Amino acid sequence: MADVAQVAGVSAQTVSRVLRDPAGCTPETRERVEAAIRSTRYVQNLAASHLASNRSMTVAAVIPQIAASVFAETLQGLSNVLLQAGYQVIIGHSDYSHEREEDVVRSLLGRRPDAFFLVGTRHTDAVREMLQRAAIPVVETWAWTRKPIDQLVGFSNHEAIAAAVAYVQRRGYARPVFVAAARPGDDRARERLEGYVSGMARHYAGQPARTVVMEDLPYTMGSGRVLLDAARTQFPDSDVLLFSSDLLASGALLACQRQGIAVPRQLAIVGFGDYEVGRELNPGLTTVAVPTVRMGEEAARMLVQRLRGEPVAARRRDLGFELIERGSA
Fold first, then answer.
1. How do residues 152-195 score in pLDDT, each as one tens digit?
2. How many domains does the chain have?
3. Partners of 141 in the β-ladder
4. Does one domain contain both 271 and 215?
5. Domain range enclosing 267
6. In whole angstroms, what is the distance from residue 107 CA to residue 185 CA?
7. Residue 36 lies inside a defined structural domain of this protein
8. Alpha carbon of residue 246 to chain centroid
């Protein structure tokens, strides 16, 4: 920093101020310091800075799976807002395991993040206790609960799939089946299963809630074909399949085309999530759309407000969902 100050013709304190709060410096001073930083190839020692300020300027994000595009979209929204406020995101993934989430949270807490972002609202008691003891802002997403750890930005998976059941009933489908690849820790898939059962009781009174749920399948389009075959074998008279995600539904729709099953005339298909792949299929995938990017953006804004000591209007924000009707149902 002293080298940068010498090249820029300013004090080391001015260099520190430009790095810490560039908007609070005059444009001329900022430009001189930034030019000196580029010419000297200076990289700030953030560890020392954070030690002095007791702030790491990081937010820890724990998601179920890095490969899932929907969580990547939410992280993109989160990161876009946090970067503008000077915060970086560090990521851990639970692989749909509550025990692994506990290990990840413990490890990330050791790096002293300023806040936490979590996908889901169901955690072990140890996770809740660790985060409450840390006394830092926490926001949970991608679900809904009456008792969040701290803050909540999400929607009701239960009500979303129940709305899909109501939709297929209005469209005249008589024998719906819920289909999912739900690993033991995939709480959102199980909330959708519960919503399906509730929707069936509400809109198909007296008819059993028929389901095909496999725990040992990977979360891929190929698993959609496996689930389609299982559903057709177990319930050959089904006229509509409601999948727990668009990825599985898209794989099933493509498998129908390969097997000569006319969609939606012989079998209708409904997904969940409004993935890009579902929009590009022919026929397009009817689905429940959720605000993946906006969830991340809203969560980030809430965290930044808390970290700046500003009041937050509401600690719980229900962003809702939308049923998108396309050709598959």
1. 999 999 999 999 999 999 999 999 999 999 888 899 999 999 99
2. 3
3. 119, 153
4. yes
5. 157-289
6. 20
7. yes
8. 14
